[in-house]
Amino acid sequence: MPIEIPSDLTPELVPLSWLIGEWEGRGRLGTGEEDSDHFIQHVSFTHHGLPYLEYRAESWLSDEDGTKLRPLTVETGFWALERKMLDADGGPGLIPAEIVPVLKTADDVEAHRNADGGFDITVTIAHPGGISELYYGQIKGPQIQMSTDMVMRGGHSKEYTAATRIFGLVDGNLLWRWDVSTPGKSLEAHASAFLNKLS
């Protein structure tokens, strides 16, 4: 399946362009063993003319036939190339950018390619229950690997210390895996899914 790059896409989002759209499919909690719970997930990656993708994932517990049983969770966030923010960039808050986009050409973007041939990325994801994650990682073609640099928790949030996530585009489908560490435990399988592109 060819990847279509929107004509109005900010140049620095081209490496992330294969994520853009609506995805839906099924997954398993934990290691995916026979007794692992099933879930359905709907994911969207959208762009707004700014140097980041907006991310939203909504999940429901399901039976093994794919019938939704009840809501599971929602997470939201932002995905971008990792680079130093310049005076011309917008923020913090509502401070407008001087120039949009700051990186105007493919050559400007290529200057940020890392020694491994990919691009460093930063991802922030917020969860219900007062938990936010800051991930750093790499996108190289249609593959992403990232791990938390920080997990921020509210005073009454559940314990959660670290995570890794991997994403890949395989035959036009989005596959992902999420490993999580809680106090006293090393990273272990938390969930994985296989999502089909809707649009």
Describe the structure.
- It is a single chain.
- It is built from one helix and ten strands, in the order ββββαββββββ.
- By secondary structure, it is mainly β.
- It has a ten-stranded antiparallel barrel with strand order 1-2-3-4-5-6-7-8-9-10.
- The mean pLDDT is 94.
- It starts with 20 loop residues before the first strand and ends with a strand.
- A hairpin with a 3-residue loop joins β5 (119-127) and β6 (131-139).
Strand content: over 45%
Counting helices, strands and paired strands, the structural category is mainly beta
Sketch the topology as an H/E string, one letter per element. EEEEHEEEEEE
User: Strand order within the widest sheet?
Assistant: 1-2-3-4-5-6-7-8-9-10
- The count of DSSP E runs of length 2 or more, i.e. the number of strands, is 10
- Mean pLDDT reading: 94
Whole-angstrom Rg:
18 Å
Helical segment count = 1
Family: Belongs to the nitrobindin family.
Catalytic activity: peroxynitrite = nitrate
Protein name: Peroxynitrite isomerase
Domain THAP4-like heme-binding: 12-197
What key phrases describe this protein's structure?
3% helix, single chain, globular, 10 strands, mainly beta, 10-stranded antiparallel barrel, 199 residues
